[in-house]
Write a structure and sequence with these properties.
Elements (H helix, E strand, L loop, with lengths): L9 H6 L5 H16 L1 E7 L2 H17 L3 E7 L2 H13 L6 E4 L4 H6 L6 H4 L2 H4 L4 H6 L1 E2 L2 E2 L2 E6 L3 E5 H6 L21 H8 L1 E2 L15 E3 L8 H11 L16 H15 L7 H4 L5 H7 L5 E4 L4 H7 L4 E4 L10 E2 L1 E7 L6 H11 L2 H9 L11 H10 L5 H5 L5 E2 L7 H17 L4 H15 L3
Parallel strand pairs: 1-2, 1-3, 12-14
Antiparallel strand pairs: 3-13, 4-5, 6-13, 7-10, 7-11, 8-9
Helix pairs in contact: 3-17, 11-12, 12-21, 17-18, 20-21
Amino acid sequence: MAKRSTIIAAGAAAALLVITGAVAALNFSESESSRDATTVTVRLWDEQVAAAYEKSFADFEQGNPDIHVDVEIVPWGDYFEKLRTDVAGEGAPDVFWVDGGSYPAYADAGALLDITTATSADAQAGWDPAVVAQYTRDDTLWGVPQLADPGIAVYYNADLLRDAGLTPEDVSALTWDPTGENDTLIAVLQKLTKDYNGNTADSAEFDGSNLSQYGYNAGYDLQAMVLNYLASGGAQFQDESNQYAFASDAGVASFQYLVDLMNKWHVSPSAADTNTNGDFSREQFLQGKMALFQSGVYNLVNVSAGANFDWGVVRLPSGPAGAISGVDGIAAAGNAASEHPAQTQRVLDWLGSAAGSEFIGASGAAAPAVLAAQPAYAQYWAAKTVDISPFYDVLAAGTAPAPRGAGWPAAENAMRPLLDEVFLGRTVVDHGVRDAQNAANATLTQ
């Protein structure tokens, strides 16, 4: 999506023929000014943040008339394949978003600007330390922090809770336990799950193959589910050397619990739906067909805009090791091959400033990684009477890092098909998880 679209309908174009000479002269002057400006292209995948960027760059251009910023959106599903192609073909945008798993390969290939030396120490001191750490490799920072997702929490449909005789308090401190001894999550999810005959999952007549209402969104969602269940179960996704370590006994038990929610207890959608559509569970929640939806602040805008029922947010369920959430951040990387590096650096400096980043927080689009812009985000949601504290309170118990290392994209490609089969119930969890770990680690030696 280009910034400030210039598409004009045929009827409007005809009407332009009667524009006076004075206005035409003004348009000519503006056109000349636009041609004199250097265009810096910024690419990302998030439409809500892109809208905030539009406002931010309009402000930036007021003080930098020699630069025009073009905002380009590439959908998440196509983003990284297109980025790889564009970087290889020397046609990448001047600034582009990267995630923690993708940036190391570009950094190692010399495709990214060195932010440590290009940006002032004072500016860097104002950035979220966790995101700075995530995008630092070999003592060099390879992107300007943009988003700092806090923890994962659980969105609830208050109407569906009420129908089941439950309150938000009843789901605010749930526990899960692979042994079943201290488990309170499954019983609640059974009350919140219904088949098409209206039977709940805790009744003898319940038909788990024919669901009309889901209790929860268990599935292979790395950020919202897998990392949190592993950490809360006392397992690691990767060890300190970046080897994949999720097939420990605790890790296998965590995977087994998630798979059982789908295939044994039938309180979540089938993996046949969620493996192929990462938005399936969110869609079901927004349609009023799912009671509890575990996710992050990256879905706050979607839920706020799309839910036509009373909703709120509660803490992540607690496992044997507590309630431990994954955290993640996004950075804006500079193209080392940009044809106008000085202008690109000025845009990066703006994105890393409080003035530039505040538009993200003030719109409620996402949690900014610039510390001075974060209060605007909290104020936005407070004005909408949405309590976002569960996303932050969970961090007190520790965090699970996002996937890291240059080998992550290849490792994910190797493990994903095997874990898909595990969640579908076609592969025994123990064997499937161990095979997935071995496949992921094998890519690190290639």
